[in-house]
Amino acid sequence: MTRARTPRIKSLASLGPGVVEMLTGYGLVTLGAGLWGVLGLFYHVIIGHYGLTPLEAVFWRALLASLCLAGWLAWRDPDILRIERRDIGFFIVFGLIGVSATFAIYAYAIRLVGMGVAAVLQYTAPAWVALFSVLVWKERLGGARVAALALALTGTTLVGRAYNLDAARLNVMGLAAALASGITYAAYVLFIKSATRRGYAARTILVYALATGTLFLLPLQSRRSVEMLLATPGLILWLLALGVVTMAAGLAFNAGVKRVPASNASIVATIEPVTAMLLGWAVLGESLEGLQLLGACCVLGAVLMLQTRRRRSAA
Fold this sequence. Notes:
By secondary structure, the chain is mainly α.
């Protein structure tokens, strides 16, 4: 028995800390994106059953996630809440663009062009992240990364059923909003990477991004949702669960982005619409077409391609 296990132990040891760190990073990004995909189930209840608007739902999502995380950090590790004075402006802009703008513009895009088209255009984000990373951070794109990017974009297009133009409510403002949400989502990934380069932990980055994003979303709210919460205790429980899952997803994703290139992380994050699609089919009884399954395979192929490429380059 011992002899049979020895080669496997040597093989694991030979991976080296760099490869283990890389695999951990991809695993965390995948976990975070997968948890984001679960949020669709919460929205189905909060918006579809209780009647909150998308903009109200994302406000409470950001508020409760930031309060839960800030309270936990203040109790467990208050020192991690400290940021440099020179970085206050950075986190304000992060919250404005990466959180409040992404949430608000995406909600507006869904209302105008529908979930499928909005999701596809939001997930042009990997292309914007890759472009920025090459031009500003001088990352090498390489053939494998270009192929993975193309696979991911193709996959999200199929998953979102953008090929079914008859089902889409196309208009110029809606398409512009959906594309803008892709740019702001790309900015979210880039802000995380920039914050990690400044030496901040994933928890610190997330709590300030969500907190400042909540402040910018506040003026867009009305008393209606507060009155609904006070009159409907069940809604409060659903919103708390939404906030906790948002917190867990953000912590995993931010920690993963710290370990892998930003462009790769944004490609792996396309696992989110695949997760949402499969859960919608399995839990909510939504239809699932063959082309959508093909799209899911494309996204998974892109993720595997990136991990294989990084493992070989580190060997």
